[in-house]
Amino acid sequence: MVIVLAEHQKGQVKKSALEAVTFGAQTAHAMGVSCAALVIGQVADAAQLGKYGASKVYVVEHPSLSVFDPQVYTAVIAAAFQQLGAKVLVLSHSANGRALLGRLAARLDAGSVSGVNAVPVFNTHLEVSKPVFSGKAVATYAIKTSTAVLSLTGNAVQPQVIGTEVPVEVLDLPVPAGKITVKSVNRQEGRVSLPEAELVVSAGRGMKGPENWGIIRPGGFAGSNYRVFQAGGRRRLAAPSRARRTNRPGDSPQPIYRSRHFRRYSAPGRCQ
Amino acid sequence: MKILVCVSKTPDTTTRIAFNAAGTELDASGVQFIMNPYDEWYALVRAIEIQESKGGSVTLINVGDDSNDAILRKGLAIGATDAIRINARPASALFAARQIAAIAKKESYDLIFLGKESIDFNGSEMGGMLAELLDLPFVSYANKLELVDDRTAALVREIEGGTEELEVGLPLVVSAAKGMAEQRIPNMRGIMMAKSKPLQVLEPIEVADPVEVVQFVLPGGKSSVKMVDAEQMDELVRLLHEEAKAF
Q1: How far, in Å, are A37, A117, A241, B158 from residue A154 at the CA level?
Q2: How large is the ipTM?
Q3: What is the DSSP secondary structure assignment for residue B171, as one 8-state letter?
Q4: Cis (ω within 30 of 0) for the bond into A249?
Q5: How many CB pairs lie under 8 A apart between chains A and B?
Q6: B2-222 to CATH, choices 3.40.50.620, 3.40.50.2000, 3.30.43.10, 3.30.70.330
Q7: Do A231 and A195 touch, CB atoms closer than 8 A?
């Protein structure tokens, strides 16, 4: 079985969770096993994970789980993994996923690869690929253990509806006491977060600073090129480069749209 | 305050990446290796700042061969007290984590620092692995750490779209992100003192590598630029929509 930890926020399943379930279902198909989703906490739309390939959705609810403590979450996820007899655990390559992956790999004595960017190949063992050297190369890893923990880079796999909603089953698992106290959570509301964005416009130096991102911001995330890479951003458009560009903030908004990693189109002109 | 800082050796950020003929290893010829910047600039410097204010020691630890001694000496020059190198070439994060955990279990470190990720394999796995092997709490991607008292730390952790403020009891494992500290350049006095600071070399314990890299591949070359006339805005929009799939 492949188990996918489906992350959620404010009671709704996140887009990255739908990607992870799609990835998990495709991995399970390659291995000839089933795929199940695991949700920690209360989520209104957990059953919809079945549409993306989960044959079952398991939920673990406990007051202690309202706070993200990697040590507590690791104990719960590992218990679910072992109880269900799973072979592969899929996480989102999110802040929480990165905190969990190493712990789970050590707890389960499993081979692990973080930031996977494609569906694995399975012969006698799993082979997975990920970008390395800050995106300058791609490495293929062979996982030599019978169990594996993977985290999926955001936007590497697009969610695919292949099924219908499925029943949600509550798992009764022991939940240890946590050692982390969360004093406050400070999130920017009303904006698309970088890992969740479907289209990222990467602002070059010509934009100078955040005060001018309004030119390219409407409806999306705007940020530095490095932040885009960190989040595994795809489908980027680069705004004016510093070379030969006369457009400056304060002038009429006339950015260049130039894709640095796909085909390049260079044309001075009006923004749309 | 006993602090352990895990450091790794990585290619310099300006390195032109190339691999051997089989595509299984980095071609190290002409490559300048450095201490992983996240380990050096943020984890190590913050550890030294805490040691300077609270007293105690900062121990560097690394898993690697003797070519890693140079980065350990640099860390000692920046201000670490002593260093340990486990004489093995790790093929996986879990192998390295088990080696370090075997050492750390014998000592009572109050804080274990490392960078949020290494700039070569971008794994972000080591911190969690170490914490689990040592049964300690772990805070990842922390950009701020202050000691509330000798047994409690207040941290700020990066999350999607914002930050979390946490309080955690010591001992603790922390992966450090940008903002945790400011880079320090070793001064001449530090460089001279580093030569006489202890650098202990230990043999590894027997553990298996659960993963191995079977192939490295360089991405395909960039496609050519397609120039669009300034008067052909409709054509540019069509190309962005139909070919680049930008919207």
Answers
A1: 17, 8, 26, 17
A2: 0.88
A3: S
A4: no
A5: 227
A6: 3.40.50.620
A7: yes
**How many Å apart are CA A115 and CA A96, to the nearest integer?**
13
Using a CB–CB cutoff of 8 Å, tell me whether B225 touches chain A: yes
Question: Where are chain B's structural domains?
Answer: 2-222
B35 contacts B71 by C-beta, under 8 angstroms: yes
Nearest to A47 by CA among A196, A166, A170: A166
Mutate to test the interface with B, among A73, A263, A270 (most CBs of B within 10 A): A263
CB A96 within 8 A of CB B164: no
The H or E element spanning position B64 is strand B57-64
Residue, of B246 and A114, whose pLDDT is higher: A114
Would you place residue B163 in the very low, low, confident or very high pLDDT band (cuts 50, 70, 90)? Answer: very high
- Which tokens belong to A164? 């219908």
Q: Looking at the partner chain, which of A100, A132, A193 has a beta carbon nearest the beta carbon of B161?
A: A193
Q: Say whether domain A2-170 belongs to CATH 3.40.50.620.
A: yes
* CA Rg value for chain B: 21
Name the stretches of chain A with pLDDT < 50.
220-272
The tokens for B10 are 């990585």
Task: Report pLDDT for B187.
Answer: 92
Average pLDDT on B20-33 reads: 88
Identity of the residue numbered A227? R
Between CA A18 and CA A159 the distance in angstroms is: 5
The CA distance from B52 to the nearest CA of chain A, in Å, is 26
* Amino acid (one-letter) located at B101: A
Q: What are phi and psi of B93, to 5 degrees?
A: -65, -40
Question: How high does pLDDT run on average in chain B?
Answer: 93
**In chain A, what are the domain boundaries?**
2-170, 188-272
Q: Is B125 in contact with A112 (Cβ distance < 8 A)?
A: yes
Instruction: Note the pLDDT tens digit of each residue in A231-264.
Output: 444 444 443 333 333 333 333 333 333 434 333 3
- Which 129-168 residues of chain B touch chain A by CB within 8 A? 129-133, 137-141, 154, 157-168
Contact A194 B139 (CB under 8 A): no
Backbone angles phi, psi at B73, to 5 degrees: -65, -35
In three-state secondary structure terms, B226 is strand
